[in-house]
Structure formats: C-alpha cells, structure tokens
Amino acid sequence: MNLAIDLGGTRIRLALGDGAGPFRREHHQRRPDGMTPPAFLALVESVLAAWGLRPADLGGIGISAAAVVDRDGRVVRAENIGWSDVPLRALIAEAFGRPAAVDTDVFCGALYEARLGQARTSRSALYVAVGTGIGHALILDGRVWRGASGAANAIGHMVVRPGGRRCYCGNAGCLCAFASGLANEAGGDGDRALQALAQALGAAATLIEPERIILTGGALNQAWFDLARLEALLPRLSYPGLARPDLVHSSVADPNLRGAALLLKETA
C-alpha cells in the first residue's frame, strides 16, 4: 500500500491507498504555521506510528504539494507554505527509505481526473482548484501539461484587476486576491469574486478551448461561489465562436490526494 500526502496551503492530509478505491486510513489536520521541512517529516512519522505502521510497510510515498515542483521533486517555490528550494523527494526517500514522488498539487489532481475522473473520456480539459490559492492544470490527450519549467499551474496569478489588491505572489490584482479561499475567508465581495473567476476561466477557454472545465477545492463551499451563475457568465467573457466547455465539479472530494497516490505508478 502507498502513503499519499496532500501538503496544502492550509491543511495537510495523509491517506493509505492506491488512489482508486476507498482509502484504508486517513488523517487530516490544519498545517501548523511556519512548519519547516523537518517538522513535516516528523509529522509524517508520528501519523505512521499512530497507525501502527513502519516505513517498511509502505510500497512508497506520493506527495501533492501546493508549490512549483521540478522534475526531481524539489519544491522550487511555495508561497503559502513558506518554502523554497527544498529537495522534498530526496528528504522523504532518505527519511523513510521508500520510493517517493512529489509533484504540484493541481498536477496530481489533474492526473487523477485524466486516469479515473471527469477527464478520462475527454481529449482536453482544464482542471482548476480553488482553495487557499487557485491553481490549474491543462490535460491534453490524457497527459498533464507542465509548462517550460513546471510552473504551468498558476491561473490564480493571472492579473484580472491591474493595480488591484496586492497578492501574496508579489504582484497586484491577481485572481487569487479576489476569488481564493484566503481572500474570502472573512466574507468579502461575492459578486466581485465570481466575476474575477469567470473572467479568468473565460480567458483560459478562449486560449485553449477545452472540452471540459473541472472545478474542485474547499473555497467552492464558501457563500460567494455559485456554479450556475459562473456558467452563465462565461459566454460573455470568452470568444463567441468557442465550443462551450462542460463546467463540472470533480466527482471526488480529494482529487489532489488521490493523484498523489497515483504518482508512484506513473513514475515507476
């Protein structure tokens, strides 16, 4: 059995399973503020001990991280976690002595959708996770597009209001500054959040014309989000000649976590 970990901007989730069926064990908690890589390793070790497991009981460890991750499993940039230049795959493999794989959270979620979820019958899909921040992944013919350096995950940093609110990435007016869970945790302007998300999705649809847009993330449970209104806004914010994409929710609550479990098979 594999250990899947979703290292998010707000929460950490660990689960035992292959990503396809029900997980055997799960642990969810808020990510401690200022958590360092050694503290993360200690947390994983403590959860395994609480489950009565040793590293040798695991087939491998797959990690979905809210970060830009290079092909060596190094966390290059993770603003919401506060890490940069962390060789996470190497640290995990050394600490636990098991095969390890690490990738960007939305790439993991898109992998799940391409193999087992809403994109398995589509030649193209856009996967968008609206959580603490907002990330995306493009799925083309069953493959997840990573971009030139692995940073093709940042629709949340598309500037939708030039000169607007300062974003945690350092720019101003990003989608994350209006439509993320972090931006709306204390309420916020629901109409502006939905308009900003619709603008970004309309621009993305105009650029790539995906068959399907798959939405997931905890912020979709906030009061501002309305799928029917979002669907109605998109035609006014994208090219009229497009084949309209299906706008759907992911069919599972944890695609990023499930994708982390699938990573090991994909990278074997």
From TrEMBL:
It is an enzyme of class 2 (transferase). Its EC number is 2.7.1.2. InterPro entries: ATPase_NBD (IPR043129), ROK (IPR000600). Pfam families: ROK. GO terms for molecular function: glucokinase activity. Keywords: Transferase. Belongs to the ROK (NagC/XylR) family. This is Glucokinase. It comes from Labrys wisconsinensis.
